[in-house]
Design a protein that fits this description.
By secondary structure, this protein is α/β, with parallel strands linked by helices. The protein is built from 21 helices and ten strands. The strands form two sheets. Strands 3-2-4-1-5-6-7-8 form an eight-stranded mixed β-sheet, with helices on both faces. It has a two-stranded antiparallel sheet with strand order 9-10.
Length: 449
């Protein structure tokens, strides 16, 4: 997410840390590079100009100049200003005082409205809402069928009227059906166009009058940069939108849309879609996004993702088995599968503060898949008691998993190291180790992927 911009900020910060103190000269030099980086990221010119001006004024303050760590002070000022242009505080969805709450999704064709409708439904269901999807895109071929398939995958009702082109009629009947199901939230997926036109806007205005939505969310493609900002301005002028959803933030985007929309349009970014899976959507937090852009990680989002994705009962069971030194290959396989639920390894590593950048995570991802295949090719008895793995068993497992016997031996060796480490930490009593660990062994220990 915003990788190029993040890399450039890291290079700028390294140069600033090299100075003994902040001066007008080195601040100007750093901000010149910041300005170019933001413009290359397709951030609005006026936004960049105000950003640089505000950072300069705060960095030249007396308190900053007297500081003993100029690098950290400069980073803090840049971080705080990024938070401001991204929207300041987080903006969640509001609920209607007279349920069901109606959320109307608008945007151009290809922005990802239909997929986001299902993602938002899934997100709200996890929050305890009973959602109801309305397929009101009556022009794009297969749009209604796409929403039906997505709705079925998350066990959510999708309402439409085959062959009907009257979106107002579709909504009226959908609302009756939603109330009968006692839905708390109705999410309306509307039609888009390849460009903004009078027909599209008139249809949305009429639908707005009837639906009286609590929230109008504009779905924009982050990969379109400043075009996304222009689209947001035009939709807001006609519909008075309540917020923006940025999709495809996991793509090859320059990030200008995320850094410009709030300042230019005056409407908050409420959600970000960060992947292709139904679960790959998150509430937009300006402070967390600023931290990610600056390479400072995002621990809060990582914790939330873990809480949503991981089976807490299963984790508690594994923790207990670790304490009793009963952790097996079966438990290790379960932990790998739990980790996969949280998303791609690269996205998780970026949320960890201080984690060095790894340009190519494909080998690690491939290794994890290989480990899964090896363990899944074992019998239950072999997973629980790997000591019984003789040469013949290893050959059978290698054949079944498409791996080499050497891969199995490597896994078993590293797994033994992991168990030794667990025993070492289990020796902690009253804050002290009952036995000093072999620190050399700990230093040389490697994870199996």
């Amino acid at each position: 997410m915003l990788n190029n911009l993040s890399d450039k900020f890291q290079d700028i910060f390294k140069k600033v840390r090299g100075h003994g103190k902040l001066s007008e000269t080195n601040i100007k030099d750093a901000l010149r590079e910041v300005r170019l980086s933001l413009l290359e990221a397709d951030v609005n010119y006026t936004v960049v100009k105000n950003f640089v001006k505000n950072v300069m004024e705060k960095c030249m303050g007396e308190d900053v100049l007297k500081g003993i760590n100029p690098g950290q002070q400069f980073i803090k000022v840049v971080h705080d200003e990024l938070v401001e242009i991204l929207g300041g505080g987080s903006s969640g969805l509001t609920k209607s005082s007279n349920p069901p709450t109606v959320i109307l999704l608008a945007g151009l064709q290809g922005a990802g409205k239909t997929t986001f409708a299902a993602k938002l439904s899934n997100y709200l269901r996890k929050k305890g809402e009973k959602t109801f999807l309305v397929a009101a895109d009556v022009y794009r071929p297969a749009a209604q069928e796409q929403l039906r398939v997505l709705g079925k995958s998350i066990n959510t009702t999708v309402f439409t009227i085959d062959g009907c082109k009257d979106v107002v009629k579709i909504f009226k009947e959908a609302k009756i059906a939603a109330e009968e199901e006692r839905a708390t939230t109705i999410i309306v997926d509307t039609a888009g166009r390849l460009h903004i036109d009078a027909e599209l806007m008139n249809e949305l205005v009429e639908l707005k009058k009837v639906a009286k939505p609590q929230e109008i969310l504009l779905v924009v493609d982050a990969m379109t940069g400043q075009d996304a900002v222009n689209v947001a301005k035009e939709f807001n002028d006609v519909l008075a939108i309540d917020g923006v959803v940025l999709t495809k933030l996991d793509g090859d985007t320059r990030g200008g849309a995320a850094l410009s929309i709030k300042s230019v349009v005056g409407k908050p970014i409420k959600f970000a879609s960060v992947g292709e899976k139904i679960a790959d959507v998150e509430q937009f937090h300006p402070d967390r996004m600023a931290s990610r852009i600056l390479g400072m990680g995002d621990v809060l989002s990582l914790v939330e993702k873990a809480q949503e994705s991981i089976d807490q009962d299963e984790m508690a069971r594994m923790e207990e088995r670790m304490r009793k030194s009963q952790f097996s290959l079966e438990d290790f396989l379960s932990s790998l599968q739990q980790m996969k639920k949280m998303g791609p390894l690269g996205g998780l590593l970026k949320m960890i503060p201080g984690m060095p950048k790894i340009d190519d995570l494909a080998p690690a991802e491939k290794e994890m898949k290989k480990l899964e295949a090896i363990i899944q090719s074992m019998t239950l008895k072999e997973r629980r008691s790997p000591d019984i793995l003789n040469a013949n068993r290893k050959k059978r497992i290698a054949k079944g998993s498409g791996a080499q016997v050497s891969d199995i031996n490597k896994l078993l060796k590293q797994f033994d190291q992991m168990k030794d480490m667990m025993k070492m930490f289990n020796g902690m009593k009253g804050g002290k180790m009952s036995k000093m660990p072999n620190m050399g062994a700990l230093k040389n220990m490697k994870m199996p992927f």
